[in-house]
Design brief:
Distance between the termini: 16 Å
Largest sheet: 11 strands, mixed
Helix content: 10-25%
Structural class: mainly beta
CATH topology of the largest domain: Pseudouridine synthase
Number of strands: 13
Number of domains: 2
Strand content: 25-35%
CATH superfamily of the largest domain: Pseudouridine synthase
Number of helices: 3
Radius of gyration: 17 Å
Length: 220
C-alpha cells in the first residue's frame, strides 16, 4: 500500500469520518511523558486532527494503528480490541537461530527484573502467540507473528524465549541496530457492517531484506 501522506512521526494510510489509520514510526511514544510529546500531540500539531487512542504500540515498535475521531467510534473500536475482534499481524527480524521455527506459544508473561518480563511455565492468565519464520539472506530470519492476546512486551518476550530475540531490542537482545525490527504490518476488523483491511510493510533498514521472503508468506 502506498503512503497517502507522510509526516515526521507517522504516515496517514486512511482518514475517514470515524477513524484515522496511520503507520507509526519507531521511536515515538504513544503516551506523552514529561520529556517527550506523545503520538496524539504530533498528529494534532502536524495535521490539526484531534483523535483518541484505541490501542497502543511500544515506543520502539512501528506499524499500523487505528485512532478514533469521535467518542462513539473510539468506544466501538476499543470494544472490538477488548473482544479480540481485530486481527493484528507483526513482522520481526532476528539474527539468531531459533529453537523452533513455527508453531504456537501459550504461557504466562510475568514481571522480571528492571522492568523486563519473562515467559513462565504457568498458564493462569496466559498469552497466546502464533508464529512462523523464514530464512533471509545474511543469516537473518523474518518472523510472522499473530498475537491472540495483548500482554506487555508479549512478542519481544516470545522471541527471546525461542532463542531468537528481535534485532535491535535493547531490553531482550544483545544485538545492536539502528532500531528495533518489530512492525505491525496488518490490521483487519469489521466496523458498522463494513470489513476493513490494512497492510503496510516497512522498507527501512534491515526490513529491506523482506524482499527475499515469499510473498505468500505474509498472507493471512
Amino acid at each position: 500500500m502506498n503512503r497517502l501522506n507522510q509526516y515526521s512521526c507517522f504516515d496517514i494510510i486512511e482518514n475517514n469520518h470515524d477513524f484515522l489509520i496511520i503507520n507509526k514510526h519507531a521511536g515515538i511514544n504513544v503516551h506523552k511523558t514529561k520529556l517527550e510529546k506523545g503520538l496524539l500531540d504530533y498528529i494534532l500539531l502536524e495535521t490539526g486532527l484531534c483523535v483518541d487512542l484505541c490501542h497502543r504500540l511500544d515506543k520502539d515498535t512501528s506499524g499500523i494503528m487505528v485512532l478514533g475521531k469521535h467518542h462513539d467510534a473510539t468506544s466501538q473500536i476499543s470494544q472490538l480490541f477488548a473482544n479480540k475482534q481485530i486481527q493484528k499481524r507483526y513482522v520481526a527480524i532476528s539474527s539468531e537461530p531459533p529453537k523452533k521455527k513455527q508453531g504456537a506459544i501459550i504461557g504466562d508473561i510475568v514481571p522480571a527484573r528492571n522492568g523486563n518480563y519473562k515467559l513462565a511455565k504457568t498458564k493462569d492468565n496466559p498469552s497466546k502467540t502464533l508464529f512462523k519464520s523464514v530464512n533471509l539472506i545474511a543469516k537473518h530470519r523474518a518472523w510472522l507473528l499473530t498475537p491472540i492476546t495483548g500482554k506487555t512486551h508479549q512478542l519481544r518476550v516470545i522471541l527471546k524465549s525461542l532463542g531468537s530475540p528481535i534485532l535491535g531490542d535493547s531490553r531482550y537482545s544483545n544485538t545492536v541496530a539502528k532500531r528495533m525490527y518489530l512492525h505491525c504490518f496488518h490490521l483487519s476488523f469489521q466496523y458498522n457492517a463494513i470489513k476493513y483491511r490494512f497492510d503496510f510493510l516497512p522498507i527501512d533498514g534491515e526490513f529491506s531484506l523482506l524482499t527475499h521472503a515469499p510473498e505468500l508468506w505474509f498472507s493471512p
